[in-house]
Amino acid sequence: AILLVPRARQVVMTAGRLTTNQMSVSRMFIFDKVEGNDSSFLEFEITGSTYEPIGDVFLKGQKIKGSDYETLHELGTICIMCNDSAIDFNEFKQAFEKVGEATETALIVLAEKLNPFGVPKTGLDRRTSAIVVRQDIETKWKKEFTLEFSRDRKSMSTYCVPLKPSKLGSSPKLFVKGAPEGVLERCTHARVGNTKVPLTAALKNKILALTGQYGTGRDTLRCLALATCDSPMKPDEMDLGDSTKFYTYEVNLTFVGVVGMLDPPRKEVFDSIVRCRAAGIRVIVITGDNKATAEAICRRIGVFTEDEDTTGKSYSGREFDDLPISEQKAACARSRLFSRVEPAHKSKIVEYLQSMNEISAMTGDGVNDAPALKKAEIGIAMGSGTAVAKSAAEMVLADDNFSSIVAAVEEGRAIYNNMKQFIRYLISSNIGEVVSIFLTAALGLPEALIPVQLLWVNLVTDGLPATALGFNPPDLDIMEKPPRKADEGLISGWL
User: Fold this and answer.
1) One GO molecular-function annotation for this sequence (predicted)?
2) Positive or negative CA dihedral for 93, 96, 99, 102?
3) Tell me, what's the pLDDT at 11?
4) How far is CA 430 from CA 180, 402, 467, in A?
5) CATH code reported for the domain at 2-18+265-406
């Protein structure tokens, strides 16, 4: 599969692992006061950047306890109950690792740091102290079922029933998390302390404005909104088999807060993208993040320069759908970023690139990525991805690192060049032998080379040097040359 990469006239990669995927919540906010359209927020900062739940929560530079803020009781409960992931302690590595999605694992860690109900941790060992908050909340609530995430509503939710009375009430609730713009559309109220107030359009705009600052600031945080439905529909009134109806169940929500997750870019990605550009490779980033956050990340990793105008080079999934087919194709030819996309967009982008005779290398790790991985000339699955993605791909990226793809391109070009060198050598050597034998036979002269001598020339004189040529190191400028044409022959007219 590596040898296919240098065949492209122009290779277009959809980059999957540009960040470390080691997510941690570093900032969050909730409402402090709301009086009409006038409001103020409480903005918290959280320390600790690993999956081990060790860190503190600060408000205006002062360390605080999560149990002192009633809204954080509900926020911590949502983090635990609206979640299908966990953390696990790896005895061999002596470190905590995620089990499931990185985003959900970061919420689990946040809840443990918040400790919203003040669960004692003194005297507990390292492993036990990391899960006591979850155990405590799960004694208060029972998850009945999950309304799985879908791209149309950009959220997921869980239907939970109380096991015993608590400050959050004694009736079933629907805990929701998702993209801020999607969740806020369905919010009618906001949680302020132990009460809730109507959520006006002005308040929604303030939430989105602060969320935008988180997504485009110095840390480029990925934001999730957390909300609750205090009076959800009864389970027997829901059609749990039809995900298109989930949107109608997550209504009349109460906004609780927004969490901002730090997912820093890999250190080596910037240099790798520079090398791709020099090698004639165009990197297209396809992501589910919102447009502002995605553009900020792309500026940090070199897909866009700091001051570059992204007009015509960056599209959200909705903007892409609104374009006529001819414009969609043109957008694929020039764009470097597609945000808030659905799985169907990935396949469509690959199809448009192929229609322009481009060779595409597609990366992915989920079940939804499988069709695009299968359709692309080079499907590259992540080592941590699903079995479905791996089976649909031609290559598996064991370390989930985008820079490894660039290294594979360099190695592929080096192997291809070495193949051409030893084939040239063997052809030139064999032409001399063929001409010599042909002329002696045509002129009736004695044999110039007897069979044993021919074997010696082929096996020793030719074989060893040709083999050595196959191990030549890459040329120093190999990643500064444009890709060759896809239909170019292995051997040209002049060898």
Assistant:
1) P-type calcium transporter activity
2) negative
3) 47
4) 69, 43, 15
5) 3.40.50.1000
Task: Round to whole Å and give the CA distance between 349 and 361.
Answer: 12
Ordered alpha helix ranges (H), 130-220: 132-140, 180-185, 201-216
Whether the CB-CB separation of 90 and 79 falls below 8 Å is answered with no
Q: Is 70 exceeded by the pLDDT of residue 3?
A: no
Half-sphere CA count of 467, side-chain side, radius 13 A? 7
Q: Residue 397: phi, psi to the nearest 5?
A: -90, 100
Dmax (CA) for the chain in angstroms is 111
Residue 469: phi and psi, rounded to 5, are: -60, -30
Residue with tokens 């020793």: 460
Q: How many residues are given for the chain?
A: 495
- Report how far residue 136's alpha carbon sits from residue 163's, in angstroms, rounded to the nearest whole number: 12
251 beta partners: none
The answer, yes or no, to whether residue 184 has pLDDT greater than 70, is yes
Of the pLDDT bands very low, low, confident and very high (cuts 50, 70, 90), residue 471 is confident
Cβ atoms of residues 412 and 6 within 8 Å: yes
pLDDT in tens, 283-337: 999 988 888 888 888 988 889 988 899 999 999 999 999 999 999 999 999 999 9
d(Cα 419, Cα 423) in Å, to the nearest integer?
6
Structure tokens at 15: 């980059």
Residue 231 banded pLDDT, cuts 50, 70, 90: very high
Residue 423 CA to residue 433 CA, distance in Å, equals 15
Query: How far is the C-alpha of 103 from the C-alpha of 407, rounded, in Å?
Result: 28
Buried b (16+ CB within 10 A) or exposed e, 133-152: bbebbbebbebeebbebebe
Q: Do residues 410 and 478 touch, judged by C-beta distance below 8 A?
A: yes
CA distance 247 to 237: 14
Residue 449, Ramachandran bin (φ over 0: left; ψ between -120 and 50: alpha; else beta): beta
Q: Fill in the amino acid letter for 204.
A: K
Dihedral, CA of residue 440, residue 444, residue 448 and residue 454, to nearest 10: 80
| C-alpha span between 376 and 386 (Å, rounded) | 18
Q: How many CA atoms lie within 13 A of 436 on its CB side?
A: 13
Predicted local confidence at residue 259, as pLDDT: 98
Alpha carbons 253 and 256: distance in angstroms, whole number: 9
Q: Residue 158's closest CA among 187, 139, 178?
A: 178
- Reported CATH class of domain 24-262: alpha beta
